[in-house]
Structure formats: structure tokens, C-alpha cells
């Protein structure tokens, strides 16, 4: 191999000094750097390996110090980051001091939007294009890089439909790897699959005529024909679906063929109307294990390569795994259960259910809104839909939960994985709003699991609860057992009833009411305070709606301080629901203190570091308890209220 | 005219007894009944006139007592309601005792989903089709009736993409009237416009071959060719956009030609794969004024027809009109302002801005998610986007407000019309969640207007506020002036500061803190209590985030009861924000009472009747104040706290 190139690239200006012949070597170095790092720390692998050449070619041709490059989803931004001066941040990938796993404007001016949710890049790019026009910067170019799994999301469709009305340069690069996050879903995926990498070299004029008929203002194509280069001319597609959206469609081209990509972008970049370049890529390109199993290597944990053997590091049993097993059990018991995921089969554990029950499961692709509505329709027929979705992505189905589910009173069961802080994925993936947004829905029930026994019990409750929708939350964490609960002694969930986890000896000095996983950390905190002679009760709240007002009445009437804890925003969250319920019941709340997420964005770090940062780990909770106890004298022991276990 | 038919139809069974020859007369009678009623009471007119024949033909052919008919948006359901036994409810259209303006399962088994938001019918129909399959009811047919404006919404696209994977009967009827709510927007609309009503009678086999290439499992088409009737054969479209979604596309056909529609549905209904029938209709068909101006007659107020002259009833000046005028003023002052609507130009007043500033405004079509993202992109370029949207539809852009706006800290200004109870449109259109869902967003500011001066002042505040997004709410109501505020003496909005509206004489017995329009009703209530010798202060809260904690500190420290009032859900709403802020500031809240919307769905009625129902009119507020005062002795007069006006 020649002298290394990557270390010499501090910015795209350095890239532009290379010859096209040198670019494949650079691609190889970028691939190697990413593979080595992800093996050490985990991170998004296959998506990044697939876009190395596309990213190099884009930066080689455009000037993204001025032009606009918008990433869709953003998990494919590593090559871009390495080309824009962030090689030095790579060793601390996905930590606070290192490179974020998603685009981050705080990190570089080359990152325009912090993103992580799919389908948004075309729409924000349309906005920037319009804004640049208004600012008189008509020559400032816009490029959106979108994967084939993202482009079927509703907002991407909406964006395409509106992009088609732009009367200026606008480029959508469709990175079609045929299986963006897991397997592609929907008819569109089948369509993409049929479109092969085979620019047809037929009679261009005949094809152009047909294109003209389909594109408003299509006479621009005649101009392109005369002005455009040979490659572009022959690559214009005349039967592409996105033609109907008003875009000039080019390709499919080989997304790993650097010289062609450079030529293509050079010819496309000055076309002053919306263009879609359809590039076929291989997810995981260049790293055999990732090419073979792009789903497993989409965002792997650390791994080791030993000859041909690749071993993924394992950690404790996750809530996700526990959910999958619980659902396998429930689906075996009740044949009316139907389970849905929106392209997050591996992430939610639903892939296991799909394997076992292919006709009673569905992956809708990245279509959370549709998935919620489909569940509504299924529930209407008397079947029992469970929608497994990340908390942060459930935000995309709020309006459907409002109208098509809650207004109809339909028992759709929404199981929200990754609720709360999520660790390395950072701000774009935290699930901190699910309580606030679903709580106002009349008839909705909100519940949470804190460990595997409660996860099992909560799902069983949801299966049988058919008076309306139910929303369950659980974190991206291990199902570490609390020392206080075994698999067998977890009482069934009762609507709106909290569960005593640590019983007080007598009338407690403090009652901790924790919602979900914080029960575990609160138990640790109480354990650590055991030597300090105070009597503290811990309840697993179980329900954020309805809250256990009878328990609150007993505790507050006895003048016992209450600490609520949640891995969720304080605004409108569980503690807020407690305050509201107390207010409604005319119970004073001056002795109620709420712990939860502060009103700020929490950046990437390990989940435990993030919990510590916001005071939701055992140490933070211990501190909060001590502070409360120091403000409150121990109450008189005559009116013990907590239930016996 | 022959003997009347409509009055003899109690259910679709009666319809099926008519001959096809009689159907045009029935259509004429349905049209007349709808026109007469809407002239008296207002309601959706043009959309209903456009689907009379489609609805008759569907009920004539299918059996929707068993089969599934899903309406998209639902404002086109009047003919359906008249054919399913609800002629008697028509005279009380859109009132509690009468016919709801949207489908309502509580009204009839023929209404499957209560809807009002666009784009959902395909997705819920997909769900029902899957559920029916699971129940073994493979012959239970599914039909979704969708307008061309709805089908460009993201969830409709997601639904189509997933419908294409169904392996059974499934019919989407595309009601293409070319201008569903107002003017069509986006490239797709231009596409529809080019597709004329002209089934091509060319060589079917040649076309079928092409279709085969595009549709997975396309060999079914050969079967259709052999099995299908002559009309269907010749109407199959081979270059339709939705072919790419895996649907067999038929048409366009004339959506007012009853005999053809009946034949067509008869031929289509047994095809066991997804079909889209593209029907061209005329919005407002059969009523000349509505055909001429379908936008004005989309959902008119009552009107009178005097020969050729049609006069729409007028009511007081609306917040919508005031918003439009305020924005005209601001856009004249600040050329960086860019205003966006999602197909609600007339409803939000943005149509006036589009007329005046075509290059600084945009109607995205029914694409709320895209509109929010486009605003994010525009804000990123330094322009000042204002997104005017109904509160209830803002729910469809929550995830975009979360990631693309708030996470980036972008100053997108969201102006939410029809916040609170909306009157005749009923539960599907109430805006009761906007505070709860946007309040958890870090950096977001939430404010409300209670009359025209505060609307003007709040918009001016938003124009200059660039530290993050701002969310303004105002109701579907008249800007009745409070007797206490003139156009000129409205002080500018200051971040997080409430405004004293009725000053106490001394230390007040009660402080009312109202958010938005309830200020007006609270002022009336206080006026009505004037003779009772109690001293009540009224503040216009102005901000739900941040709340005026300094004011609360002063009032609560002085042991004065506080009544919060909001036209919004209590769960997570303004009063909840007050409780949280007090809790954080260690202020007791046992003397704080919250008035707001209860946890239930409020059905159609006049807005004033709805406000009375939930106790948010002057009478209800008066009652709440009296009750609070009866529980609290008048405080001692030594610590007056309210600011002088």
C-alpha cells in the first residue's frame, strides 16, 4: 500500500488535492479505521461501510463548507466525520469527549442537523434550499443523503413530494442497500429490489420524451441532454417511481465505483432542478462478516476478529431479550396476539417473534404512524395488537395514538423499549417524553417495568386489559434483579396500584415512589443508607396513569415525605401526575419531591454516566434522600401506613 | 321528478332494491338535502357533494354491514350517513342531538372509525384486513375512500406501501377532485392533474405485460384479464404512480357516472389483491356556487341563495382573521418572515399572506411533518419561519418539533389556531394536548393569546425571540374584546411574565391566573361577582413555559388562593406547569385549584355549549370562584401583592 492518506486529511480541502486514482486507497483506509474502532467500542458499522465511496465522492465534488449536506438518520456519518477533521475524536467514539455517533453541529460546522430519526433530511434540505434562495444565495447547493429504508417513511415521502416543486438545484442521493436497518419491508422495497444496476443505453431521445411528459417544466431535460455529460445522459431513468414526484431520476449506479460517482456528481451538481441519484450499495461493504449479516453488524457491540471467526461481546440480559421471551410465552398462550415492529426487529426483540410466528407478526418498515394505525385496525377486529417501538420513535405515532387508537377506545398495547436515557446514541434517541405525550389521552393507561418479573407481569396485564390503549415503558438496560424481588413473588399488576418493594419497619421517615427502572437504583440507594437509622419505604409505582392516589392519601395524610423518581422529563411526567392527583384530591404536596430528567439535552455517554450526570443513579438518589431527611424531622411512629409486603 | 326515493331508504338494503336507473335521482335528492341543511346550519358542503355517486355506488355493490368501509378525513361522510338510516339526524347537523359532521361509531355500526385527521384510512383498513384474515373472515372486503389531498400525507404513503404487500382483496378508492381542501400542493398534485379521465383502449396485452413487470405476483393480472369484465380490462392503468406501491391501478374513471361506477365496483370487488380505483370528481358537484369556489364552500357557515347570489353568514372577527392581519403587518416590517401552512390556507388565514407575499409563503399540502421540518431548514438559514397550524394537527409534527427543531435550538414559530374546544367539528378536532406535548422540549417557549391586542403582541414577541422554538395557541373563537384591554394599552410580552388584567383593590381574596382565551371568560365571571364584596385579581398568564414563578411566589407566600384556568387538558397542561413550578420552588399548592378540560372526549356542539359543559364558561368559572372563596376566609389585608396595572 502507498503512504497513508487519511491522516493527512484535516478537511475536505485536503481531500480535493488527491487524484481520483487515490480515492480507492482512501476508502480502504476509512473502512479500516471504522472497523477497528467499532470492534473496540461498538457503534454503527454496516451503514458506514456502505457509504464510504458515496461520501468521498460527494465531498470531492461539492463544497460542504458552503453547500448543504443533510444526512438522513445520520448513523452513516462516520466517513463524513473522518473527512471533516474528526479522525482524532474517533478513539472515543460515542462518549462525551469523543465523536458522537450521529451528526452533531456542536462538533463541526459540517454537521448541519443533529439527527437520528429517519426520513427528515429531504424536508430539512428543502427548507434550507428555500431559505438560501430567500437569502439570495441561489448557487448554494443542497444535497440529502437518504437510505432506501428511510425513504419509505411518511415524512420522506412528504419531503419528496414538496421537493418536486423546487425550481432550483436540489439533489437527493438514494443510498439503496436493500436492507437499511434490518430486512426491507413494504412494496417499495420490492420495487427497489427489481431495479437493477443497469443504466440502459437505449435511444435517449425517445426516453427523454417520455420523461418530459411526466415532469412539470420538463423542457429542462432537453437542456440537460445538450449540456449534460455522456454518463448522465445515459443514466437518466425513465420509469423510476420518483419521477412522479417531479424529480429527474438518474441511475441506478454502482455506489462503490468512485470514478463514476465523481463524474456523475460533477455532471449533476449544476443541474438547476431537483434530481434523485439512485445508488446501489452494499451494507457492510468491505468487511465480510458485516456484508454477510448486515443486521447483526448494523450497530454491534464490541467484537473481536479471530481469523474468520467474529465474536460479539455480550453483556447482561437486556429488557429487550426479556420482552421477546415474555411475548413468545404470551403468544403461545393467546393466539389472538399480533405483534408489530417498525423496522426495529432486532432492536425490540420482535425478530424472535417473527421467526416463530410469521403470520401473527409484522414489520412495517420505518413507518411508525402506519404501524400504530394498523394496530388500531387489528384491534378493531378483536385481535390483540402489541406494537413494540422505541420510546423516542413512539413520538412519530402520537397523532395516530390520539385519533385512531384512543378516540376509538381501542386496546392497542404499545411497548416502549429504550425509555429514558439510552447511552451512546445520545440526545436523538433518549425516550424522555412518552409519559407527557400519552398521558392526556382519555382512556389511556401508562405503566412501567423495573425488572424481568415486572416486565412479564405488566405484559400479562396488558394482554387482558381491553378497555383502552396501554403504554408500557422499559429502558435500554439489563434486567438486573433487585435483591428484593424474585421471579415467582411478583404480584400481578392491578390497575393503578403501586407495589411495595422495601417495607418500612414502622411508620417510615420517607416513602420513595419510583416509576420503572429507577426502582432498582432507589433500592440500591436505600440499601446504602441502611446504617443511618432511618426507615425508608420503597414502592414500585407501576402506573403513571392512573397513579395510586389511595397510597398517596395514606402517606401524605400521615405527614410522610414522598420522593418520586422517574427516568423521564419532569415536565408532564410521572411526578407531575402525582402532583396533579394530589392537587385534585386536595392533598398537600410541600413534602413531595420529584427526581427526573432536567430540562436540557443529554449528550452521548454510557447510560450509567448519563444517569449519574442527572442524579438518577444510586448515588444521586442517596443524595436526594439524605437531603430530604435532613429537612424533615423523623415523624412520630404512631401512624404506620405502608402495607406489609 | 318521480316519487322521492331518499325518504324510503332506512338502510343500504333499501338502496339495493332500487334499479341502477333510479340512482341518479337518488343522487340528486341527497345533494338537495345536504345543500339545504348546510345552508341553514353550516357544515362541510363541497366535499360531500363530490362523493354522492361514489358513495351510492359503493353501498349499492358492497355490503358494509359486514364489509369494511373506511373514510379518510371523514368530512365527506354525509351521503354515507343518509344512506345508513340517519336522514332524521340531519336537521340537527353538528349538534349534540344531531348528526356528527364526521364518522362516529357511537352513531351507527356503519361508521367504523371516528376520524377527522387526514391520511389514516388506508392504514386502518390494512389493519382491519389483516385482523379479518386472522379471524378467518377471508371474504370480508375492505374499502378505503381517500381524497387526492389526503393521499399525499405521510401516513397515507406509508399505508399504501404496506397495502401493496397484502395478498387479498383490498380496494382504495382515490377520490381525485383536484383540490381537496384548498388548492392542491406538491408535485403529486401536478401529476394527478396530468392524468385525465381517458381510459385508454389500446392493446391490453401489451399493457398487461408492462404491469406484470411492476407488480410482485403480477400473474394475477392475467387472471383478472380472463376473469374481469370488459370495463375493468380496458381501465387498468399501466403508468400510474401507485403501481410502484404494488397496487393494481384502475382508471381514472368519471366519479359521477353512476352506471359505470356500479359496473366497475362489481368487477373489482372480487379481485383478490390490492386495487386502487382512481375516480375523477368535481368538488361541490351539482351546486354551482360550490363548483365555482370549492374552497369557500368546503365548510361554509350558513348561507342564503337568492337567485344567483349566495351570501355567507358572517359572525364576529375571528382569531384567524386577526392572525392574518397581524402577520400581514409583521411581514411588511420584516422581510425575513416566511409563513407556512399545511393545506389550511383559509382555515389559518395564511391564504391572505399567500396572496400578498407569494414568494415568502408556502402551502405544503396536508404534510404537517414536512412543514415543520421545512421550517427547521428555513430557520437554519437565518430566515424567520412561522408555521400556522391547527392545534390538533400540530400533533402530527411532534417528532419533528422534537428533533429537527428543538434539539437544534431553532427559532421556528408555531402558531396554533383552534386550540381548545372547537365546536361542531367535535372530538376529532379539539386542540387539547399542545401544552402537554411541547412543554417537555428543552428550550421551547409556550405562550397564548386571549384577544386581538395580545395576539398582536405575542406574534411580535415571537418574531424577535430567536433562542429556540415558540408555540403560540389561540382558539376557534371571536376576538371579543375584554372590557379591560384596549388595542393600545397591551404591554409587550416579556418572557415568562404574566400580565395583570383586573387589579385588586388591596390584598386580593383570590388570584385568577388564566391562560389564553379563558382570560375573557374569567373577566366576565369576576364582573358578575362584583357585588359580592370580594376582591379578585385576574392575570393573563401569557406563558405556560416558563410560568411566572415570581408572581406565584408573591401570591402564594401571601397565602392567597390561586385559580388556574385553561382551555386544555389538565394532564400536563398549564395548571400542571404551575404545580410543578411551585413544587420546584418549594411553594405549597394546597390553595391552588386548576380548571381545565376533563379526561374525556367532548362531542360536537357549539363551542359555547362545550365550554359550558366542562365549566369553562363565565358561569362555570363563577361557580369555581365562589366555591374557592367559600372554603377560604378572606385573608388579612396587610400584604397586598398584585402589581398595579
Q: What structural class should be given to the helix and strand makeup of chain A?
A: alpha/beta
Tertiary shape of chain A: globular
* Arrangement of strands in the largest sheet of chain A: 9-8-10-11-13-12-17
The N- and C-terminal alpha carbons of chain A lie at a distance of: 69 Å
Mean pLDDT of chain A: 89
Q: Return the CATH architecture of the domain at 6-288 in chain A.
A: 3-Layer(aba) Sandwich
CA radius of gyration of chain A is 27 Å
Number of strands of chain A: 19
Output the number of helix runs of chain A. 26
Most strands sheet of chain A: 7 strands, mixed
Might you state the CATH topology name of the domain at 6-288 in chain A?
Answer: Rossmann fold
Largest interface: A-B, 115 and 115 residues
**Residues in helices of chain A, as a percent range:** 25-40%
User: What is the oligomer described by this structure?
Assistant: homodimer
Low-confidence stretches of chain A: 180-184, 196-219, 637-645
CATH homologous superfamily designation of the domain at 6-288 in chain A: Thiamin diphosphate (ThDP)-binding fold, Pyr/PP domains
What does this entry look like structurally?
Two copies of one chain form a homodimer. Chain A has 645 residues and is of the alpha/beta class. Chain A has a domain at 6-288: 3-Layer(aba) Sandwich (Rossmann fold), CATH 3.40.50.970. In chain A, the strands form four sheets. Chain A has a seven-stranded mixed beta sheet with strand order 9-8-10-11-13-12-17, with helices on both faces. In chain A, strands 1-2-3-5-4 form a five-stranded parallel beta sheet, sandwiched between helices. In chain A, a hairpin with a 2-residue loop joins strand 6 (303-306) and strand 7 (309-312). In chain A, helix 14 packs parallel to helix 16, helix 14 (319-333) runs parallel beside helix 21 and helix 17 packs parallel to helix 19. The longest helix of chain A has 19 residues, at 23-41. Chain A is globular and about 85 Å long. The first copy, chain A, starts with 11 loop residues before the first helix and ends in a 14-residue tail after the last helix. Residues 180-184, 196-219 and 637-645 of chain A have low confidence and may be disordered. The interface between A and B is large, with 115 and 115 residues.
